[in-house]
From TrEMBL, chain A:
<protein>
    <recommendedName>
        <fullName>Phosphate transport system permease protein</fullName>
    </recommendedName>
</protein>
<feature type="region of interest" description="Disordered">
    <location>
        <begin position="1"/>
        <end position="28"/>
    </location>
</feature>
<feature type="transmembrane region" description="Helical">
    <location>
        <begin position="231"/>
        <end position="252"/>
    </location>
</feature>
<keyword id="KW-1003">Cell membrane</keyword>
<keyword id="KW-0812">Transmembrane</keyword>
<feature type="transmembrane region" description="Helical">
    <location>
        <begin position="128"/>
        <end position="159"/>
    </location>
</feature>
<keyword id="KW-0472">Membrane</keyword>
<dbReference type="InterPro" id="IPR035906">
    <property type="entry name" value="MetI-like_sf"/>
</dbReference>
<dbReference type="InterPro" id="IPR051124">
    <property type="entry name" value="Phosphate_Transport_Permease"/>
</dbReference>
Automatic annotation (TrEMBL), chain B:
<dbReference type="GO" id="GO:0005315">
    <property type="term" value="F:phosphate transmembrane transporter activity"/>
</dbReference>
<keyword id="KW-0547">Nucleotide-binding</keyword>
<keyword id="KW-0813">Transport</keyword>
<protein>
    <submittedName>
        <fullName>Phosphate import ATP-binding protein PstB</fullName>
    </submittedName>
</protein>
<dbReference type="GO" id="GO:0035435">
    <property type="term" value="P:phosphate ion transmembrane transport"/>
</dbReference>
<dbReference type="GO" id="GO:0005524">
    <property type="term" value="F:ATP binding"/>
</dbReference>
<keyword id="KW-1278">Translocase</keyword>
<dbReference type="InterPro" id="IPR017871">
    <property type="entry name" value="ABC_transporter-like_CS"/>
</dbReference>
<dbReference type="GO" id="GO:0016020">
    <property type="term" value="C:membrane"/>
</dbReference>
Amino acid sequence: MAHANETTSPPSAGPAAPSGPVRKKTLRQSDRRGVFGDKLFSGLAMAAGIAILVLLAFVALFLSSSSGRALYSEDEGLIVGQFLQYAMPLVGGTIIASIIALGLAAPVAIGVALFISHFAPPRASRSIGYVIDLLAAIPSVVYGAWGMSFLAPAMVPVYRWLHENLGWFPLFAGNPSGTGRTILTAGIVLAVMILPIITSVSREIFIQTPKLHEEAALALGATRWEMIKMAVFPFARAGIISGIMLGLGRALGETMAVALVLSGGALTASLISTGNQTIPAEIALNFPEAGPGSERQAQLIAIGLVLFIITLVVNMIARWIVSRNKEFSGAN
Amino acid sequence: MSKRINAIDLNVYYGDFLAVEGVNIDIEPRSVTAFIGPSGCGKTTFLRTLNRMHEVLPGARVEGQLLLDDDNIYDTAVDPVTVRSMVGMVFQRPNPFPTMSIRDNVLAGYKLNGTRLSRSQSDQVVEEALKGANLWNEVKDRLDKPGSGLSGGQQQRLCIARTIAVKPDVILMDEPCSALDPISTLAIEDLINELKDTYTVVIVTHNMQQAARVSEKTAFFNIAGTGKPGKLIEYDETTKIFSNPSKKDTENYVSGRFG
């Protein structure tokens, strides 16, 4: 049809007819401009994709090659056991701090996101969203300074109370710290730091819940909260998990705030006494003193590799959780 | 089960904007009533006031009375959630819950009102509702599969099953066939014919043949111009509306000489 029009209709027939010499279009003649643009764009996109993989490969390669001396020494042979003895408490401390941060931040962040997307009046929700995003813009060293000089002293009486009343519980056993600079304080600071990222990811996904599904629930006689459970949460599940994973990534890797807040030590189950250390803070605090090429430096890079692997595993688990029940995801 | 709907001098506002003005209508129980009219004439808005769904939009409010049998659903003591559990609604586009199985979709209303059903009771509810929606034979072997895997027409019948499972008094349908192919449309229309034996059915449609096929009474809504409120122009037996309407506007619309 279009072809017939091009050749037979008079020039005044429509905007498609050019004022200059009429160029006949045939099937075999393609529009070169479009082809070039497509090729350029697909090339750029592919290059970007490959660059990410190459970068990741180089990071992994650097970490593995420079950490060799932590696992093998010429005098003693394989010293994997020795390394693990050093690394495991740090892994434990990192995971404890991250769990505290996630446990505190995730429920609050989801609550705030829900309030912004479904409960607050439009004007209020915009300003609250703005304030939350501002939280993400604060440098981590500022959080660290705040945690060290304000939050930690403020937590001292709380820790004392926890110790006196809940001391039988392993998490609150042990001598309460006199400075308040414990793993729990660090976890709270981390929670505040990861709150904005989880909030904004969740908010974005909550807002995208199809009106159709919300109305389906409401029309069945759902209250607002029931509607959220029936339509919003199932739709947003994957998004919430990605938000939490992004937050977890930041909590696992956060260095400055933890280095300032936590007065580290050996691994301990008690959250209220001095002790525990996280991998990033350990690296940051000790790297300047480790001589280039020394075994100590290799050891620090090796725990960096361990952190890298933890993050990778956590992300894979998250992917697996999201992809489970794909049939029911609503993506179709 | 089936209830009479009676609107008395009903005005619908969105904020300060008067969307629908002065509707008086009396809808019989166990009947099918069609709302027809051009786009933007307020027929969907009015339909949504029948189960207070329009209140989902902030600033929406109503003046006048809307009686369900003898109870005004806009009485201050009435909870919209209760109204909606008694007045079911089927939407323009099929909207089964994508994360739920077919079976859970049908039982969604029971899950909401907190009724504890034994396994055999819920089996019975599911079977009855799906049979009532003429869907049972097509899905009985895959009740645990997601509802979103069905075809559009089947999804719409699943939504009807979900609505009738809780045994409402009234079923509202907002252009239920506009996203469906002719064969699925026919299936839904047959179903509407069966539903009217038990329920009061109100259907909004753009398709005048459909209104003529399924309804006993038809209400024609119109709007004087952009920004003006929609009004109920004429409400009468469907045969009369389509053959011998008493208003000029109605005649122009049903004969296609609109505007």
